[in-house]
Every structure is written in structure tokens, then in C-alpha cells.
Amino acid sequence: MLEEMNDNLPQAEGQDSMESTPQGTEISAQEAMDNHLAEAGETGEHESTTLPTKDYEALSMEALVEEMATLLSHDQISAIKNHMEEVRKAFMDKFHHFIEEKRQEFFAQNDDTAEFEYHSPIKNKFDQLFDEYKARKAKHFNQIQNQLKANFVERTNLIEELKNLIDSNQTSMSDMFKKFNDIRDRWKKAGAIPKDKYNLVWNNFHFHTDRFYELVHLDKEVRDADFKNNLEQKLAIIARAKELIQEASLTKAFRELQLLHRIWKEEIGPVDKEYREKIWVEFSEITKQLHDKREAQLAQAKERELQNLAQKNQIIAQINQLSEERITTHADWQKQIVKMEALRQDFFNAGRVPAEQTEETWTHFKNAVRNFNATKNAFYKDIKNEQQHNLDRKMALIEKAKSFVDTIDFESATPIMKQIQEDWKKIGHVPRKHSDEIWAEFKQICNAYFDRLHESRKDEIEAEVAAFERKKDYLEQMKTFELVGEHKTDLDAIKAHIAAWKELGKVPQNRRHIEGKFNKILDALFEKLSLSKKDSEMMKFNNRLDQLAEGNDQRALVNEQVFIRRKIDELQNDIIQLENNIQFISNAKSDNPFVKEVYKSIERNKEELKLWKEKLKKLNNLA
Prior knowledge:
Distance between the termini: 96 Å
Oligomer: single chain
């Protein structure tokens, strides 16, 4: 705006054209000002409505579309032109950024050969509104062009009319003045013309106006009256310019100041030499005050823009830092995405930055977000591949389970079906679109198998319940059993009880605690027998193995193997440690009590080690 106004400033008061007003045609300064402003308003050179500026970059795409619809409700298309362009730029920047994210998300979940398409309702609405604006803008432009051409024709005709008046050689000065004033009035109302014709037409009109004045030989009284009228109009311009200093909107003030300069230079004639320099200096000083006020405002705006730039650069750095963090879980990535969205909103809310750095800052922001999305999409692409692998594994388990649905060999199939269920649990997530479907299929297959298994075991379960009742009664009998003191007789009796217990049959899984009660009774009986520790332990262990085999509990067998191996390792380590301790006692005698105790411990551990190894051998044979 400053540059535009400077181009239109008068060079000097003395350079104004010597236009005069014939006697009897003077108008007041206020009337002249009103006429000039009215003419400017009619030609579109002065916007009667100034719309407030907004920070469109801070608005969302939805809010920008609403803003565009609001602007289109305005009657003056010229008043919304700059606003519409800023809205369009802000919307397209955000939309390109948005569609790039959608494109990356698409290819993160699909093959690179897939064709990306995305239909955005908000973009469709934006396009409809902007097309409406372009149509109205084109129509408005055509109307202006047609009006400018018509005004040019009218002004050209008025010049010809003035030339004909001068060349008519009429003797009646009164008639000539009347016609001349009519031409001048119609000239002022004719409106704007194309810029490329402006200087030629105006100079031509003023040239012939001067010819008219020379023809009628204006006297000093008339010229002084003309100077006085021009002075009043220019003083009115100065008064209005002073009022503009208090105008809240500097944009509006500068727009009107530019108009006042044009009127001063082109519309109003010269004044008396006594006042020319004085009023021009006063008008120029007011113009300078407005310049200084504008410069101060621009400096403040520049400072705010620099602060916004620093804030946006900091946000970009934070986004880059997010991209560099190593995230390995979906939950953590969801937290990162929330942080990212907050930073994006902060960036858009940060306000304008210096114009010369707008593009660079926006590019850095887009690159930072693009890098974040690339890292995020790479993670989810890996998850997608892993989930596809998991899907393949679960489909293989489904096929394997299907092969046992109709089997009648439940003894062999049941452990396999249970293992299939365990393996299913260990496999991770599958693609969401397949998750419910394959789980329903797998669940149906398993239910079908185990329903048939339970149906086939009804009689067996009834038999197990009956066996439990018999064993419960047998335990009551065992409470009254007493050893007679004869080793062989007592041992045979215990073995007979063990055999009888086995003959009572298998009990339900949820009632196997009764086996523990029987084992406690056996332990007490073995304690009373004069059996060696090894024989006693092996008899109790053999009874436990029979119970494990009877229960067909593979997990229990594996746990028992792990326990025995751990005991063997502990004993071996103890023996090695004790033997090492003996080596350190080089000077001790063999009858030393400490040495003798160490040797006894070694022998005890070796005997116990043999016992546990024998247990492991029996257990391995059973497995």
C-alpha cells in the first residue's frame, strides 16, 4: 500500500495544471469532496467495506471452508479477493499435507502396485465454493472491463465535444460557458477508464480546457475565484487526512489517503502561489505521520512474526525428535501419534511468520511430518507383515485341527488338540479384518471335537466318580490298618494295599487330591518298616509313577523330569565342591574329624545321586 501511494504523490504544487472554473460555477469544498468520493465508489476504485484480516493458517480445513462460504455471502467481490486467495492457499497447503499422509498410510497397508484413491467430502465442498467464486470474479471482471471501455468512449466523445465547442466560433459567451460547464459535469461523472489510456485522455482533456480558457480571455477576478475554490477543496482534503491519523484500521486509512492524493493531483486545479507550498507541506507532513505510524505497526508485526518463526522452528525440532525416538510397540506409537497431533495443531496456531521465510518454514514442517509418518508407517508395515505371518500360522493350525474333528482315537488326538490350542495362544495378532472370522472358525472346530470327546467319556466319567467313592471308602479302611511287626508280612501287606488301590480305578481329574491322601498313609507305613532308604524311596516313587501314568498328564511328567534333573545337578555340584575342599586341606590327617565328616558327606551325596538317577531312568522309560 505504501508503494502504491508513493507512486501517486504529487511532485510539487507548482506543477498542477492551470485549470480554472468560470464565474458562477463554484461549488463548496465539502460538495467537491463528496462528489470525488462518490465517483471513486461508483468506479470501484474505493472499497466501501474493509473486511478484517484473519490468520487463516491457524484454521482447520473445515473452518476454512466455512470461512470461504461466509466470504461468498459478501456483495462486493473486489472486497473479498485477497481474503479468498489466502483462504485457498491455506486450505491447499493443509490438504496436500493431509493427502500425503493418507497416501503413505495406504501404501503402508497395501502393495506398492496398488492404486491410491481418496475421496474427500471437504475438498469437494471447497472446490464447489471456489468455482462459484471464480465464476463471480470473472463476471465482475468482465463487467468492469466493459464499463471501463464504455467510460473511455464517453470521455473521448466529451473531448471531441469540447474541441467542437472551441472551434465553433460562437459569439455568445453565456452559451459557451453553459455548454462548457455541462461538459465538465458529465466528465466528472464519466467514471474510470483503462489504465493504458489514462494519461493520454486526461492530458488531452486538460489541454483543450486550457484552450477554452484562453479563448474566453478569463479576467483576474474569475481566476482568483477559481483559486479560492480550489484552495477550499484542498484544505478539506487536509482536514480529512488529519482525521485519518486517528483511524483504527491503517489499511483503510492508507486506501483513502491514496484516493485523496489522486484527487489533489488530478481532480483539483491550482491555488494561489501564496498558499501552494504551505498547503502542500502540510499535506505531506500528514502523509509522513501516517507513514511513520504504519512503519511502527509493521515493526511490531515483524517482531511478532519473528517470535512465531522461532516457535514454529522449535515445534519442527520437536517433531524431528519424535521421529528419531525408537518405538517398538503399538501402544507407544499411539502415544507418539497423540503428541504429533498436538504439535501439528501448535504449529498451525503459532501465527504468521515473515513472508520471505513462509515457504521455507512450511517445507521444513512438511518434511518433518513426512519423516515421522514414514517411520510410523514402516513400523506398521512390519506389523502388517508379522500379522500376515501369524495369520498363515493360525490357518495352518485350523487345518491341522480339522483333521481331528471326526477321529475316534481320542487318546491320541486329545493331547494334540490341546497342544494346538496352546500354540494358538502363543501366536500374536492377525490383521483385524480376519481376526473375528478365523477365531470363530477355530473355536467351532475345537468345540466340535471336545463336545464329541465329552460325549464319548460320559461312561468313563461315571466310572471315575464310582472309583473315587470306592477309594474314599478304602481310605477309611486304611486308617485302621496296623503293621504286625514282621517285615516280610508287613511289606507284602503294603504292596497288597497298593495293588488293591490301583484296582479301584482312575478318579476324575478334579478329585485327584485323594491320591495324595493315600500317599501320606503309605509314607507313614514305610517309615515304620525297617526298609532301606533306597527301597522305601523307590517304592513310593514307583507308586507315584503309576499315578502319573494313570492320569495321562504329560505336563506333570515333564515337571517331574525337570525336578529330578535339578536335584541331580545340585548333588553333583555339592560333591564337586566337597572334593575341592578336601584338596585345600593338604596337611590334615585322615583321622581328622573334619576330614572324616567331609568324606561321609561325599558318600551320602553319591548314594543319593544314584537314587535320583535311578528315578530319572524309570521316568524316562515311562515317558
